[in-house]
Amino acid sequence: MAICRFSPSCDVFLDINDEGRLECVACRLDDRATFQAFDKQAMKAHLEEHVTAGHKVPDAVFEDLDQKAW
Ligand SMILES: [Zn+2]
């Protein structure tokens, strides 16, 4: 299940894999490798790195990470 996809307003593709783990797919911070986060806090920290790098990460993604119980 994709949480967000690449679009003009989004530079990250977040997914949840079969094990229920959050993934940053084709990560632009890591030469298009897939970053796996062990929990939501780790993914939020990772997304902050994207923002710091000037990438677009919609606010709604952070809100989803806060509010949804995956
Ligand atoms: Zn990433």
Structural commentary:
The protein is of the alpha+beta class. It has one domain. It has two helices and four strands. The protein has a four-stranded antiparallel beta sheet. The protein is globular and about 30 Å long. The mean pLDDT is 94. Bound molecules: zinc ion.
Task: Offer a concise description of the structure.
The chain has 70 residues and is of the alpha+beta class. It has two helices and four strands, in the order ββββαα.
List its salient traits.
70 residues; alpha+beta; four-stranded antiparallel sheet; globular; binds zinc ion
What structural category arises from helix and sheet content? alpha+beta
Q: Which strand order does the major sheet show?
A: 1-2-3-4
Mean pLDDT comes to: 94
Q: Calculate Rg over CA atoms.
A: 11 Å
Query: Which regions are unreliable across 5 or more consecutive residues at pLDDT < 50?
Result: none
Distance between termini?
11 Å
Q: Rough shape?
A: globular
The domain tally reads 1
Number of helices: 2
Elements, N to C (H/E): EEEEHH
Number of strands: 4
Indicate the topology.
Layout (H helix, E strand, L loop, with lengths): L1 E3 L8 E4 L5 E6 L5 E5 L2 H13 L6 H9 L3
Antiparallel strand pairs: 1-2, 2-3, 3-4
